[in-house]
Model the fold of this input.
Amino acid sequence: MPTLYENYITGDDGNYGILATVQFPAQTFTPSVNHIVSSVKAKLRRSSGAATPGTVTASIKATDGNNKPTGSSLVSGTYADGNTITTGASGEWIEFTFSTGYLLLSGTVYALELKCQSDDLGNTLQWRYDNSSATYAGGQLYVTTDEGVTWSSVGADKDAMFEEWGDPQGSGGGGAIYPINELLRASGIVRTFFAGIGGQAVYQAILTLGGISTTHVSPIGGRQPSGAVPSTVMSLEDYKKLRERALRGEITDPAELEAYKKVREQALAGIYGTTPASISAAEATPDLNQFQRDILSGGVTPLNMSLGDYKALRERALKGELSGSELEAYKKVREQALSGDL
Done:
């Protein structure tokens, strides 16, 4: 049975809006013991019957030196029926279950981020929170208005309603663990990546059969752990070639596109973290990536495009959805964006 770990569930007297890109919040929290997180709950409501937030995504992220959310998701889950969430003033508890467990470490600050699919400011999905006298000591509520580039504190005494559930089994330096179901793990293999001595990435396999367990730990080269155990590991050079094809709109096969998406998530999570700093830094900040700049060529024709439209177009390019004249238009406006013209 899952165990309730970090939570804050009383004193909610306010509603904080959750949108797709314009604004979305994150509640930080600090585990008091090591455990494998398997799901989270958030107390949500819709501001009106006209609100159509669509699929809602809950993600757990690491935090930076200022305890603000940073990087890609360590683990995430979705709730598809966002349009049916109550409009009642007190809201309702919505659970987000993770298909992959993630080992959270005691004393480390993490962030629970919520996003939806709507940017309708007049009809929003809302997170119930304590707006007056919050007492949760392990974190606070933050908000971003630039899609996670920067985060601001809503207030040191502001906390959202949340519950974090998991499994007490697990140890090590942090990483993704399969399977998260304790019944499956009772007679099978638990696999995890974690950072060992000196940051050396290590692969650990624990085999449990009939109550007898054995642990095998072996180094896996210089790769750093990612937020999920990779099903395949692609070389940096192969990843560069695949990404160049994606930006040019040349990936049309669904399976190949999914492979690109998966390895891109791993790259952003730091799987190539031991490569030269210039490459790893570029992966973390795609807009400053010299590799991507090199892809762009040709003259620049002035284009009248809003920043919002450019962001939407860029997201489609990264998904490999652009081709032909639309792709050429994206290349030109992206060059303008990188030069600061947008």
